[in-house]
Amino acid sequence: MRNKTYKHMYHIFGKKGWVNDPNGSCYYDGKYHIFYQYAPDYPESALKYWGHVSSEDMIHWEDNGIALRPDIPQDKDGVYSGTAFCDDGKMELFYTGNVKHPGNHDYILTGREQNVIYLSSDDGYNFSEKELLMTNEDFPKSMGLHVRDPKVWKENDKYYMFLGARSVDDKASMLFFESDDKKNWQLYKEYTPSAQLGYMFECPDYFEVDGVKAIGGCPQGMDSQEYKFMNMYQSGYFILNETTIHSSNEELEKDITVENFKEWDMGFDFYAPQVFTTPEGKKIIIGWAGVPDAPYDNAKSLEEGFEHSLTLFREISYDSDKKIFKTYPIKGYEELRKEEKEVLLTDDKKKVTLDSSFDLEAKATGKAQIVFSDTEGNKDLVFAFKDGVCELKFLNETGCKRDVRRAKVEKVENVRIFMDQSIIEIYVNGGEVVFTSRYYPNDDNIVATFDGFYEVNAYSLEEIDY
């Protein structure tokens, strides 16, 4: 029987209401700041605000309440996603202000305003008046009314803004603007890839890890395949081998292909990530632990008044052999480990009884499987590797209608699993492949049975009050 809450201790979430995309992720004035899409009155209202948390270590977070509200005509229907820019001595925020006009509109080609709005802060908590920078009229006529989610950076004394877009003929598109002062922007590049990336490209990003440049984002409308693109919408990146955003569109075509699009996370619940930099130069990624319009739900958390959260903070590294980015939990989570759990050997299988939040590491050499069950032996969830395929499969209602996700991987050498009450994150081979999913155990304890793993170390976690 479940007596514990499903609310998280180590993941950012709203104590009540709805959470989605991380926004304005940055390090400023001695603290990390994460803003996020927040609907505090959900399910009665889905109107989006920006929630705000801050931290000195990315582990212990202070809830700073609502930072931005939809309080001007240009964002009256939602403070949508955006970015933080901190390179010029203060925190500067850029976001999309959403406006939907009443009437018989499709809100794709008619009836919607997508406004780029600016404000700034000297201390990271108190913000200036909002300034309108761009409206629909500033975007190319070839684009529809879905142009959003600004990412801003500085390069060679110029400022650049990257916006995701949907063309009038329903093609995923990318818009780049440039500016000398961050206030007056001119179109720098319009690019609609020939690759079949669906009808919309949102949550755009442009970043560099270990000297490797990449374009990140979330295509909507890609065709699902057996071992990838299994979610309703995708989230991933294109490594730019010999190109940058300054290359011609023809040159970009070499890198912006369906084959070159790599997903950050192969689980049920990952979307709209942001990449930001620590003072030491490390690149960190955090995502929304959810997916829009998914055919599954979080009914059990909604019973407690909250829906969705953000993921763990993951450090990005580049694997030059596989030519992919790996993502792995930041070191600070290991400091939460408290008691090492006893691992029993039964019928050549290792078995451990875990708390509702835990951290474990396991090593394998070939075919391997982990079964998560309740204390009465009822099986909830199976993670397995066989014949070059990893599979995460729910066997009952603890997945709230989630079924199966798969990913190809040559071999499994090690697995790291972090569970936080009702969210599980599985890292294969140091983050070569990751699966994130909500998981709602029926018991306060979880029994994990390991087959094909020769070493298992599992830990309970120090409780913290987020």
Automatic annotation (TrEMBL):
Domain Glycosyl hydrolase family 32 C-terminal: from-to ranges: 401-446
SUPFAM superfamilies: Arabinanase/levansucrase/invertase (SSF75005), Concanavalin A-like lectins/glucanases (SSF49899)
Coiled-coil regions listed: none
NCBIfam families, per database record: scrB_fam
Gene Ontology BP, a term: sucrose metabolic process
Pfam families from the UniProt entry: Glyco_hydro_32C, Glyco_hydro_32N
Entries under InterPro entries matching the protein: ConA-like_dom_sf, GH32_Enzymes, Glyco_hydro_32, Glyco_hydro_32_C, Glyco_hydro_32_N, Glyco_hydro_beta-prop_sf, Suc6P_hydrolase
Pathway connected to this protein: Glycan biosynthesis; sucrose metabolism
Source taxonomy: Bacteria, Bacillati, Bacillota, Clostridia, Lachnospirales
GO cellular component terms listed in the entry, alphabetical order: cytoplasm
Protein's UniProt name: Sucrose-6-phosphate hydrolase
PANTHER family for this protein: BETA-FRUCTOSIDASE
Described purpose of this protein according to its UniProt entry: Enables the bacterium to metabolize sucrose as a sole carbon source.
All residue ranges annotated as the Glycosyl hydrolase family 32 N-terminal domain in the record: 11-326
Reactions listed under catalytic activity: Hydrolysis of terminal non-reducing beta-D-fructofuranoside residues in beta-D-fructofuranosides
Superkingdom: Bacteria
Record GO terms (molecular function): beta-fructofuranosidase activity
Subcellular location per the Swiss-Prot or TrEMBL entry: Cytoplasm
Family: Belongs to the glycosyl hydrolase 32 family.
UniProt keyword terms in alphabetical order: Carbohydrate metabolism, Cytoplasm, Glycosidase, Hydrolase
EC annotation from Swiss-Prot or TrEMBL: 3.2.1.26
